[in-house]
Design goal:
Elements lengths: L20 H18 L8 E7 L17 E11 L2 E7 L4 H40 L1
Antiparallel strand pairs: 1-2, 2-3
Helix pairs in contact: 1-2
């Protein structure tokens, strides 16, 4: 079973490197992020909710006037993919796996954002170096 701890998120150093080491440090950071992404398990976006429902039968326990007891829990996964919102029920037997997929997706999203940030920093650094070389 995969361990879903927050230690997979890359932390930025307190004191950033200086000079020529900056590009190397950014490339190493990106390489580390890629390795962490490769170690993730299955991923899926979304929100998992626990729900309780009332049925349509008039003599059911969920309609009891003194002590109504709703049916459930039912687990529902909601997500948007390619602009389309989707909701699906999750069986209790699948909860652990789905929660793991959701946790790994959150790690992936954080790592992706960090990768993009490091790539932007690298592009800016290279652009600034080209300007300095021309001057």
């Amino acid at each position: 079973m995969k361990n879903h701890q927050n230690d997979d998120i890359v932390k930025t150093p307190d004191a950033p490197p200086q000079g020529a080491d900056v590009e190397e440090a950014l490339l190493l950071r990106i390489k580390g992020i890629k390795k962490k992404i490769a170690r993730l398990g299955e991923i899926r976006p979304g929100t998992l909710t626990e729900q309780y429902n009332v049925c349509g039968r008039k003599n059911c326990r969920c309609k009891d006037k003194a002590n109504p007891q709703k049916h459930g829990p039912y687990y529902q996964l909601s997500y948007t993919r390619n602009g389309k919102s989707t909701s699906e029920f999750v069986r209790e037997d699948d909860l652990k796996r789905v929660r793991g997929q959701l946790a790994d997706y959150q790690k992936f999203a954080a790592l992706k954002d960090e990768w993009v940030g490091a790539s932007i920093d690298l592009a800016k650094l290279r652009r600034e170096r080209r300007k300095a070389e021309k001057a």
